[in-house]
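Trying the structure run again after the queue cleared.
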Amino acid sequence: MNLVFLGPPGAGKGTQARSIVDRFGIPQISTGDIIRATMRTDSPLSKELRSYTDSGKLVPDELVNRMVEQRLGQDDCEPGFLLDGYPRTVAQAETLDGLLAQQQRRLDHVLFMDVPDALLLERITGRRSDPESGRVYHLKYDPPPADVAGRLIHRNDDTEEVFGKRLREYRDYTAPLVPYYEQAGLLRRIDGQGSIDEIRERLVTALS
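Done. Tokens:
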């Protein structure tokens, strides 16, 4: 099964992606994962990537697209994949369509996590991170145990100001993917409100 996961920051894509990949036996692939994996290799692609990251420049679409192409060609993607964070723009989506066509594959579903802005803000700003274990808690939805609470930190990117910037970028660049995939008949709108189990059931229903 070949899937794309869409949704604004704080929609819960990461939480739900784990259950999807376990259920269907497919890898979860994000651009961050691809970049880190490429950086660990001694390849021409890695050297080209470092020329941007070492100088603090944004990695251009053309290079991201090539890394995605390379990743989708690996053996663990043969039964399918879940793309999370790619494509980010309509231009990238068009490139992905062409790439899959060359491989005689196609997307089966595009899962769009639909969550109101007010709930997104509550989810983001309520997150707290444990610097020792790396686990992320939520003050309301997943409160930490008493012996952990005192050492939790509020990360800079979980503030209202940073969330507002990320949401604006999502609206400008990624949100147009919703009508793009809707017109292609691939979009599955998932109500992202409720418990983790409730949302998971909605996803399973959409995929079946």
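The first strand starts at residue 2 and ends at 6. Worth checking whether this holds up in the mutant runs.
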